[in-house]
Amino acid sequence: MGPLADTVRSKSKQALLLWVDGVREACCLHRVIIYSLRSKQLAIRTGQCFLLNGFIFLGSIFVLKSVIIPALEWILPGHCPQINSPESCSFSSILEFYRFLRGGLVQLFNVFWFYPLYIFSLILSSIWYNDIAKHGFFALENYGARDTKLSDQKESQTLQSTVHREKSTDLEGFMISIAEQLYSVLLLTFFFVEVYVTGLIPYIGKALNFMLLSWMYAYYCFEYKWNLSGLSLDKRLDFFESNWAFFAGFGNPCVLAIFLFSSLVSYGVMAILFPLAQKPTKLLPCLEESGEVLDWEGYQYFSLPITCRCES
Description:
Layout (H helix, E strand, L loop, with lengths): L1 H25 L3 H9 L1 H36 L16 H52 L9 H17 L1 H28 L6 H25 L3 H10 L1 H16 L3 H15 L4 E8 L5 E2 L2 E2 L5 E6 L1
Antiparallel strand pairs: 1-4, 2-3
Helix pairs in contact: 1-9, 2-3, 3-4, 3-10, 4-5, 4-10, 6-7, 7-9, 9-10
């Protein structure tokens, strides 16, 4: 039991360090400002996401709940006045009609404004997220992890663009890329169904739902960078499974935020936080295989089947 207990304690400490570092990485929002100053297009796309999802979408929900619904309740009251009279509720049928009319007006507002705005925001945000990841990725490649340019960055960028061009002109590589994308969509679809089903389990369902949503959110964030880096799907999944504690910590802050609100408000909050979580970060596995324990910013906690290069 001694060696087993030591192994469990060591692995638990390793997982805790990974989780803490994932939370810390997700909360480094100052990089959004830094990289937005480096890339004008990145700043524009991030601002558009804030404008659409924060100001317009969440602002519309605030106006509906704080202005429109209270005004309708004042104009079309649904309760009898508090008067000590036996005939005070003689017009209850009219009040019932008022309640029905008020609910119908709110539903019309939802049908003709909120639901179209939700679909429009979903489609447009998906396009903008890809642009944000692309501009952030190239801002990192051009400037490096610090404010000064690195001398070998241009060579690295040219090499990557050459690889991408060769991959795009090769039919076999193109078909493999399409197959990987389809497999990724199916994988995330089944994972989403699993998230929904686990949420129905009594007692522990919410906790499992929270953890699975955190993993799914983190995978979505990093998949944009991995696509731009040309990383194959099997390496992505191996890296994700090997660093499950880091990605759990990375997804926890945003998922915790959306757990506190209703579904529409949760979507608006997630749509704002998602581009912030795509801030450039050099977290991707190298190609060579090794069993070494790596040192990332003073923490030695990786012991993976593949060597990982992690730089903030």
